[in-house]
Write a structure and sequence with these properties.
Blueprint lengths: L7 H40 L6 E4 L1 H16 L17 E4 H11 L4
Antiparallel strand pairs: 1-2
Helix pairs in contact: 2-3
């Protein structure tokens, strides 16, 4: 068995690559969990047991979340994605789960 010692630069590069991959796995896991929760919410709607959980929401933050869903598709291209929703806008009184579902519908990741 032969052991090779890697240089600190190679180790650092590998570390950054592993951190990026771990970040993608974490992000994908969160997205999968959100999809599962959406399916469960749809089952509640069909069963007539859906209850709104209304709260004050910032439209700018909702747009930012939607932007994050599609940002990866623009990487490596000339496309520029920008959140132009004014953060100074008044709050929106809505169900956060429902508003994130609308973002998924209007900003598909496929």
């Amino acid at each position: 068995m032969v052991f090779q010692r890697s240089s600190p630069a190679a180790s650092s590069k590998r570390y950054r690559a592993h951190r990026r991959i771990c970040g993608l796995i974490n992000s994908s896991g969160k997205h999968l969990l959100a999809l599962i929760n959406d399916i469960l919410d749809l089952a509640k709607i069909e069963a007539g047991r859906w209850q709104l959980q209304e709260a004050d929401l910032q439209l700018h933050h909702i747009a930012e979340d939607a932007l994050q869903l599609v940002k990866w598709r623009a990487q490596g291209s000339n496309a520029v994605l920008e959140n132009t929703v004014n953060p100074e806008l008044e709050t929106l009184y809505a169900d956060e789960r429902a508003s994130s579902r609308y973002c998924s519908i209007f900003c598909p990741t496929r």
